[in-house]
Design brief:
single chain; 241 residues; alpha/beta; Rossmann fold; 6 helices; 7 strands; globular; SDR
Length: 241
């Protein structure tokens, strides 16, 4: 089985939710992880939490970076390269959602959604592509089933995730001949703090963050000749309507 020990990963928006779950799974496999967030203290405190009780030799570090700013992403990658000397895995996970009728959605909400969910993924790969060429690494975006299924009050979120799904597939075609694998994961309902949700026992039916982490590990261990480029994942037993 393919060993992942000593590889290095960048996870944007890794301080909570899906990003945090992926970070836990990577660390358990011996992968060093850099998580980013807009607030440095939060990122560093989360890295300490991830490192506490870790059984592997891997470690997590926390970096301040805003995916909406290209220079910020470049600095994060430079910090990773300076500390670890390599970058093998990039997870473009940072995301948010504003949900409102087009009549009520504000231009600022539209811009923040597109800048974070779509442009942020572009800035992330642009900042890291040279490092991934060196390592023949893996770039994974976290899209959504909302990137293939539209719904009322979802114009900004749908646009960002439809765009992210298509963007990732085009990047896959651009980079595969450099030996870089590219995939997008499209989850349905996940038990996270997304948009103010407080996960509790009522979310037990949802996808759990560790499930997405497990899926990422499966992708990383896939034989290099095979590329699952777009993966839809949904709760197996949602509540009956």
């Amino acid at each position: 089985m393919k060993t992942l020990s000593s590889k290095v990963a960048l996870i944007t928006g890794g301080t909570k939710g899906i990003g945090f779950g992926i970070a836990q799974s990577l660390l358990e496999e011996g992968i060093n992880v850099a998580i980013t967030g807009r607030d440095l203290t939060t990122a560093q405190d989360t890295a300490k939490e991830l490192n506490a009780g870790l059984n592997s030799k891997a470690k997590a570090i926390g970096l301040q970076a805003d995916v909406r700013n290209f220079e910020s992403q470049k600095k994060a990658v430079e910090s990773i390269m300076a500390q670890f000397g390599q970058l093998d895995i990039v997870i473009a996970n940072a995301g948010l959602g504003h949900f409102a009728s087009i009549e009520d959605l504000t231009p600022a909400q539209w811009q923040e959604t597109i800048d974070t969910n779509l442009t942020g993924a572009f800035y992330t790969i642009k900042a890291s592509v040279d490092a991934l060429k060196q390592s023949k690494g893996y770039y994974i975006t976290i899209s959504s089933l909302a990137g293939a299924n539209f719904f009322a009050k979802g114009s900004a979120y749908n646009a960002s995730k439809f765009g992210l799904t298509g963007f990732t597939q085009a990047v896959m075609l651009d980079l595969r001949h450099h030996g870089i694998k590219v995939s997008t994961i499209m989850p349905g309902s996940v038990s996270t703090y997304f948009n103010g949700n407080e996960p509790d026992h009522s979310d037990a039916w949802k996808i759990q963050i560790e499930d997405i982490g497990e899926l990422v590990i499966d992708l990383l261990k896939m034989n290099p000749r095979t590329l699952p480029s777009k993966i839809e994942v949904r709760p197996s037993m949602p509540p009956s309507k």
